[in-house]
Amino acid sequence: MQNVDQAPPAPHKRSTGGSGSGSASSLISSSSLNSENPDTGSTQGLVGVRASSSPASLKNDLILKASAYQDLGLEYQALRNTEQAIACFQQQLGILTKSPILIKEVTAKEMECVTYFNLGQCYYQIGNYAEALKYYESNLKLGLDIGSVENKLRGYRSIGLVYESLNNFEQALAYQEKHLSLATRIDCTDEKLHAFCSIGRLHYALGNQIQARAYLQESLQLVEKVSQATGCNEPRSGNCSRDASLATNNGLREEEATIHYFLGLVLWKQGELESAEVHLQKATKLLEQIQQDVILTANHAGPVKPHPSSATLAKHSTSNNSLSLYSTTGTKNHINYSLQLYDRQIASYQALQRILVSLGKTDQTLLVAEKCRTIANSVLHHQRQQAQTQTSYQTQTLSPSHASSAASNHSGSGSHLYYQVKCETS
Known about the structure:
Elements: H1 21-24, H2 30-33, H3 55-78, H4 82-98, H5 106-125, H6 129-146, H7 149-165, H8 169-185, H9 189-205, H10 209-230, H11 246-269, H12 273-299, H13 310-313, H14 328-358, H15 362-390, H16 400-409
């Protein structure tokens, strides 16, 4: 299962109809990359699909080709290279919805359902909530039609997050309660965790402090249980770009940081300053760990297979050059994600700073203020250098005074949900 909030969102499971990327990708050849509008409704224009094939063989080839686009899209999406991920998923969707032989194929319908969700995730990451909502609703509708519990869970949760991003808290709460009800019925711990956390945030936004505290505390117990089960508290490997569990671990840490942050705000509202301090300290520590992982991941980036979009890759097909995962778009998205994390750290430090002032802890207050200043200078400086050395595009100089604004302009995965409620006591 994937986590959206985070933002970034986390890696998605491949559709049950898909094959491994190694075999499926072989169906995408150079001539298909050069085809502006492949005719996905017939055998003509589909490279690797044999015109003389039997219906069963043709069906299998189409599924493999769609799976190849999905695999590449997921690779780009995991690296927040959303522009190229969207192109991959759109190619996949065209094959699944415009090929007559696949119209009633169950495996194709399951893949189509997942593709709607992946497209919704991409648009949500770049803050295009109208498009995200459209694809999430398609995911939920088709999930209901084919009786897919997994896609119903995804749909309820994701639509709820979009409405939360649009500050429509009542509508968001309705979807998250459906999400929790279904997750509880099938006893899915991961989904219950996401649902409890979302409902806790929403009750806080609606001013229901008692309910918010209850749901957030329940989600905290679940995240600790999941962390122990998945080993997310274990030391991470040195080569972060090759650590298969890194994205999942960071997604769980983001969820845990969000829980501690909002629980800290709830306790602050209720006058329990010492307990609020503890939770905000934990939130800042988790966010620091995630930021370090993001920087290490960028430093260890490796090559990836060429993107199958004809418009993007036609110019590369004759030179045998492969695109890097950290092309201009990929690097920009990594910088945007780092800025979102920076914004979350600042919000947590600012709330913690005000609590420490109220507690009369002057020395600790000054230390937190210095950490805030250090983050504003060192993190952004590092990311500007990274952009200049890995890409040819020019980055705008960002000062600490408007870095938060820059992050919100590029926000994704609902990062602004972290700050939409003012951190003020009653």
